[in-house]
Amino acid sequence: MQRPLWRHLWDTPRAAVFDVVLVAVLLPLGPILASLYRSDLPPQDYGWMGGRWVAVVLVNLFTVSLLVRRRFSVVLLAVGTASMLVHVITLSAGIGAFLVMNMRTDPWMPADLMFAVYAFAAYETRHRWRVLGWILVAVIVFTALRPWTHPDGETLSNAFWITVFPAVLGLWIGARRRLVAALRDRADRAEREQHLLTEQARADERAKMATEMHDVVTHRVSLMVLQAGALGVTARDAATRTAAEELRTGGCQALDELRDFLGVLRSGDERVDRTSSAPAPDLAGLVAETEAVGVPVRLTELGSTTQVSPSVGRAAYRVVQEALTNVHKHAPGTSVEVHVEYGPDRVRLAVRNTRPESTGELAGHGAGAGLLGLRQRVELVGGTFHSGPTGDGGFEVSAILPGYVPTAEAVSG
């Protein structure tokens, strides 16, 4: 995107407004001062250049050029210095005046040049330009003081206030501005470093939590799975063997999900597993279970779970599972639409039910613990979650998940 024109001259809108107002004030100020103080130079002294109006036009052009003083202060100094030297030469040679002078005690310089001197001292930071600029400032000060004419106190005072003082003030303002910028940059750096330290502390705490959860939970669940497997082998009746097999299968699924969850917690670890042997749960089976209890569900799946990492597929499964569970609890007698779209970079899903037939209102059950847990789970893998009532009295749960979430290597006992 192309930068606006004013950005080439000013850093901030405030600086632009200030310079525009400054020029707008200086332009009428010249005629006002000329009417208050009669010039000591007769009009014919300007005849060699076409008249006094030419000098007035040149001064006004210089005043307008102050709009670029922050970017081209050295150029303005050069123009002002050249004008002063021409004025001195023409007066000394008896040719006539080149600049507008109201009183003989005025310094031989355009009065607006003081703003260019200030801008140079305050804003110019390039070394070569600063060397040239200070040479020009020295010439301006020397010419304005008129040491060869034995100037009186009033002349020296006027020359000081419109040459030396702006230069000193500009140096102070420039040094203060650079100091403030350095302090601000240091504060920003410290804030970024603090943010990085905080993130590192969070990552360390998450890794610690993952290790503790592995030590506490994984070992016990593994023992449960082994015992269920042994019971399935040694049991004599079919019902016991079936229950033991279901228990073993559920324990294995719990271990897979716990492994993925621990992997997400330890995503800052150096060990990263980009694949997982455990497939993502089947949404069709989940929908079939819901329809078996009398809730009509229409499932729409676009794409395939193979396009996303298994941990993302499981997160999507949990969102749909919890949404359907909420329908069972809070919205009996409704129909449900489940829409899931798998893509290479993200997964979009939405679960929407119609208005419930019972007296319970969905809006009154907006953010339960289940939905809060879902939000935390979705945000843990870097996704976004939304839930709330729809316009027709129903309720919708939607989420957008990233297509890939790195997980730590599978931990073993």
What can you tell me about this protein's structure?
- There is one protein chain.
- With 413 residues, the chain is α+β, with helices and mostly antiparallel strands.
- Helices cover 58% and strands 8% of the residues.
- Among the domains are: 5-151, no CATH class; 283-402, 2-Layer Sandwich (Heat Shock Protein 90), CATH 3.30.565.
- It contains ten helices and five strands; from the N terminus they run ααααααααβαββαββ.
- It has a five-stranded mixed beta sheet with strand order 1-2-3-5-4, with helices on one face.
- α3 (73-92) packs parallel to α5, α5 packs antiparallel against α6 and α6 (153-234) runs antiparallel to α7.
- The longest helix has 82 residues, at 153-234.
- The chain is elongated.
Counted beta strands: 5
Ranges with pLDDT <50 over ≥5 residues?
Answer: 268-277, 360-367, 408-413
- Number of helical runs? 10
User: Order of strands in the sheet with the most strands?
Assistant: 1-2-3-5-4
Secondary structure class reads alpha+beta
User: Quaternary arrangement of the chains shown?
Assistant: single chain
- Biggest sheet overview: 5 strands, mixed
The average pLDDT is 80
Overall morphology? elongated
Outline of the structure:
It catalyses: ATP + protein L-histidine = ADP + protein N-phospho-L-histidine. Helix content is 58%, strand content 8%. It has 413 residues and is of the alpha+beta class.
Summarize the topology.
Blueprint (H helix, E strand, L loop, with lengths): L12 H24 L15 H13 L8 H20 L20 H11 L3 H19 L7 H82 L3 H28 L17 H10 L4 E6 L7 H21 L5 E7 L3 E8 L15 H12 L3 E6 L5 E8 L11
Parallel strand pairs: 1-2
Antiparallel strand pairs: 2-3, 3-5, 4-5
Helix pairs in contact: 3-4, 3-5, 4-6, 5-6, 6-7, 9-10
